[in-house]
């Protein structure tokens, strides 16, 4: 389970988050909406430990593993997709080639393709980012503006993936400034003026 308590964060004089709290239980799908710059990515970075909060706490159960797609995913630009995913998976010794191949086929990325990621479109990079966020059997998954560049089929496959994750009792937070048709959330929240409120 993920528990965020009274997170506050400022950058110089600009306060981004003010006393933000939330709980994410196993099997839950939560949506956080908010305009660009509202602090969604900042909140995700604090949860994953990429940046520190000024105040507040983030608590994660010991057995939980976080997967995340935050802003523009970074990759080894001159390597192909499979090499990138192997590299990331082997960092934690959790690379599962069968699962990765299945995910790549689902999102129409060739497991045997030799094209470097530097030549990928925005949508292809986004698909690769989604795959790396779920391929290690992570049970807390944070997805930020994940439909960026995705075509209709890419969005459809993403919705199917989320339904599968929910059945597997995985916990997911989707942050986006727009509504994703076809997704059914357990809870919808809005991040506005630094505060997270129920919609």
UniProtKB/TrEMBL annotation:
* All copies of domain ABC transporter, residue ranges: 2-197
Q: Which Pfam families match?
A: ABC_tran
Name the keywords, alphabetized: ATP-binding, Nucleotide-binding, Plasmid, Transport
GO MF, any single term: ATP binding
Q: What is this protein called?
A: ABC transporter, ATP-binding protein
């Amino acid at each position: 389970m993920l528990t965020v308590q009274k997170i506050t964060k400022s950058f110089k004089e600009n306060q981004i988050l003010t006393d933000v709290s939330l709980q994410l239980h196993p099997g839950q799908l939560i949506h956080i909406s908010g305009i660009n710059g509202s602090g969604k990515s900042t909140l995700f970075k604090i949860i994953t430990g990429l940046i520190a909060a000024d105040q507040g706490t983030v608590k994660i159960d010991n057995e939980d593993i976080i997967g995340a797609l935050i802003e523009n995913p970074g990759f080894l630009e001159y390597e192909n997709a499979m090499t990138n995913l192997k590299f990331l998976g082997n960092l934690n010794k959790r690379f599962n080639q069968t699962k990765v191949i299945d995910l790549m086929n689902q999102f129409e990325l060739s497991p045997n393709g030799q094209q470097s990621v530097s030549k990928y479109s925005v949508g292809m990079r986004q698909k690769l980012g989604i795959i790396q966020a779920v391929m290690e059997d992570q049970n807390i998954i944070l997805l930020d503006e994940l439909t960026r560049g995705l075509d209709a089929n890419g969005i459809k496959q993403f919705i199917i993936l989320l339904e599968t994750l929910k059945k597997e009792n995985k916990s997911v937070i989707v942050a986006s400034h727009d509504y994703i048709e076809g997704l059914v959330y357990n809870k919808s929240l809005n991040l506005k003026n630094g505060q997270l409120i129920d919609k």
